[in-house]
Every structure is written in structure tokens, then in C-alpha cells.
Amino acid sequence: MKIQEADAKSLLVAEGLPVPDWEVAYSDVEAAAAADRFLTAGAEQVVIKAQVLVGGRGKAGGVKLAATAEEARAVAASILGMDIKGMTVRKVLVGPAAAIVREYYLSAVLDRAARRILLMGSAEGGVEIEQVAAERPDAIVTVHADPTLGLLDFQARQLGFAMGLGGHLKAAVAITRGIVRTMRAYDADLVEINPLAIVTETAADGTTAERLVCLDAKITLDDSALPRHPELEALRDPDEEDPADREAREAGLTFIKLDGTIGCMVNGAGLAMTTMDLVKRAGGEPANFLDIGGGARADKVAHAMRIILADPKVNAILVNIFGGITRGDEVARGLIEARGQQDRSVPMVVRIVGTNADEAATLLAEAHFETATNLDEAAAKAVAASRAAGTAA
Ligand code: GDP
Ligand code: MN
């Protein structure tokens, strides 16, 4: 689950990391009021940032500065409603604008292969790290945290020096260790600060000082660990969740959308993966991974069918059920119910074996469903149906 910058910053603040102040505004008027508060408190300018769950907002025009409350209103009005990489901006972050001296990159990701948290730092901050990785891989420094000891001080110091943060080493070490704590405290997959920036701050008496702060924050939480953090569920942004993902989650289905044309409905994660492999071996491309789970009733099956059919690319469906706890006749009833409700007709191939397979076969035959007895045959038929539909279209 990705969370918004403002929420990610709240988690960083809770771990003691330095983050400039901010407010979230849902309208241009709210943004102007927030800007007014920061300007009155002494900020020379405010920064207004689109809150959408995609990167590269700056390049897309979703990050702008303003010097007055009125200007902030106009800037917020131009950013709200903007489309950034397919996401509509519904809220903005408003904060005192930082006077940036230099931008750095710092992140922690879960390195599954190494089974450790991997820290990545670079003096080439602000730009997309993928670009740095492709063009100048040497400019990225990495270090693994120990699973039991965490990131040791000397490792954090080495990383800080290698990033060119020798002049702000104490802050760099605190921030680096802080993002590792954040990873562990919330079971995050990713904590990314880009840019981590040296900024100049002017005190009330006019003296200036440099400080290292987290100007942007991106956090991805491990979905499988969310039950351990029920309070983080509140950070889910329903505006940004894909409608199919939300429907599947609410229906208790495991659904992952893919790019192909053959919708797959399967029970059990292992069988679902095997089904996808066989579709590919038969020359097709699966449109999704969908596990209806064990013991699914007819309404759940109908629900799964609606989610699959909502994808306009789907032009054939393969249903593969191994009845154990799940009863074949119950699935067949769900399929018949779903077909009665569906508003577009898509060829479907059904293979049901195991518990109550005979009853299922009778029901499906009466309803004139195309069936298959083995999985290779089912995959071949689904791929043929998809090809025929693709040629016809
Ligand atoms: P992203 O493009 O979605 O990653 O959004 P960022 O928050 O990283 O902002 C993009 C860029 O805008 C940063 O790399 C900075 O150069 C600039 N920026 C962001 N916040 C400020 C700020 O407070 N002051 C100034 N001067 N520039 C900022
Ligand atoms: Mn950024």
C-alpha cells in the first residue's frame, strides 16, 4: 500500500526525523489560508505540492512556490484537478518553502534476495533514481542493515561520507538510522527521501544556518503485514485505489491485474499461478491473477466474474477450480448467476474437478457452458477463444 507524502512525513516525524512543517489543503481557499499562516510565521515563500501517489510530480508541474497567500490560492487552484500520470489531484500539501543548497537521495528498501534492508544513498538527489542508476551507477552507494543489529553507526557514517554529507554527518547518521527504524516500525517495503536536502534557514535575528531535512517522502507498506498495524489502514487513500483492487479487497478476493486478455478465475494461489503459466505456455497472456480462496460461495464467484469483466481488455475467461472445501456445484451456480447479469458476452471455458464436480458438470451442461476436463485443454480453448475474439475485433 502506497501512502501519500503528507502521511509518510507524519510517520517520519513520529520516528524523530527532521521534516519541514506542512498542512494539507483540499481547496484553493484552504491552501491560501495555510499559506497565510506560514507566511505570517516568517516564511518567505510557501511550497505547494500535489498529493498523488505517483513520482515525478515536480516535472509534471505539481510542485510550485508562491510568495503571497493570493498567489498560493492561484497556484493551488491550478494544481487541484490536474491529471498527473492518470491520477487526479484532490489535495495539496502546503508548507514553508525550503531554501535548498543541495539535494541528495536516500532510501531504504526491502532486499528480498539478501533478506535484509538495503540502504541506497546518492549525492545526485532530486532526479529520478532510476535515471541515476542507469547513467551513473557509481553515484549510488549501498549498504545492508543487519537483520538483528539494525544499521550500525559506522555503516551510517560510511554511507554519509560516501554521499558527500561529511559536513552534516551527525544529521545524516540520525536520518539514515531513522529510516531503518521507520522500515521496521511499520513493516514498510520502501522508505524514500528524494530529495534529502541541505537547506539554509534564517532565524528571527537574521542569522542563517544550514540544516539537513527530508523534503519529500515516499513510503510503501507491506500489504501482508498490515494486519499488524490496524491504525495504518486509515492511511489508505480510497481516491487512489484502483476500483477493481478495492472491490476485490472488499469481497475478500486476491486479485492482481495484469496486461493480457485472458481473465483467470481460480481457487488457491498455487493453482492460480500454475493456470497463468499454462495460459502462457498455450500462447496466451493472462489478464489477471485471481484467487477466490477456499470455500467460496456463488455470490463470491459472481463478484469475481464482475471484476474480471470490468477490464475491457478481457476477451476470454478461463475458470479453473479444484474442489476441496470449495464445492464445484456452488461455483457453477455462481458462474451461471454471473453470466445472467453480465452486460457483455465473453467466451468462457470452465474446468471444475474435485468436490461435487459431477453436479457442476450437469449444471454447466444445462446452461450450455464450454467445459474442459483437463487443464491443458482448458488453457488451449481459452487461448483459441481469445485469439478468435481478437481477430474479430
Ligand atoms: P516529486 O517530483 O514528486 O518527487 O516531488 P518533490 O517533493 O521531490 O519535489 C520535486 C522538486 O521540487 C524537488 O527536487 C525540489 O527541487 C523542488 N522542491 C520541492 N520542495 C521544495 C521547496 O520547499 N523549496 C524549493 N525551492 N524547491 C522545492
Ligand atoms: Mn521527490
Q: What does this entry look like structurally?
A:
It is a single chain. The protein has twelve helices and 19 strands. It is an alpha+beta fold. The strands form five sheets. Strands 1, 8, 9, 10, 11, 12 and 13 form a seven-stranded antiparallel beta sheet that branches. A four-stranded antiparallel beta sheet has the order 2-7-3-4, covered by helices on one side. A four-stranded parallel beta sheet has the order 15-17-18-19, sandwiched between helices. Strand 11 (188-202) and strand 12 form a beta hairpin. Helix 10 (328-341) runs parallel beside helix 11 (357-366). It is elongated, with a radius of gyration of 26 Å. The two termini are 36 Å apart. Guanosine-5'-diphosphate is lined by residues 47, 49, 55-58, 63, 97-98, 100, 103, 126, 194-195, 215-216.
Uncertain runs are: none
Helical run tally: 12
Query: Helix/strand-derived class?
Result: alpha+beta
For the termini, the CA-CA separation is 36 Å
Proportion in β-strands? 25-35%
Multimer state: single chain
Mean pLDDT: 94
Radius of gyration from the CA trace? 26 Å
Residues in helices, as a percent range: 25-40%
For the largest beta-sheet, the strand count, sense and barrel status come to: 7 strands, antiparallel
Using DSSP, what is the number of strands?
A: 19
Bound molecules: guanosine-5'-diphosphate, manganese (II) ion
Sum up the overall morphology in one term.
elongated
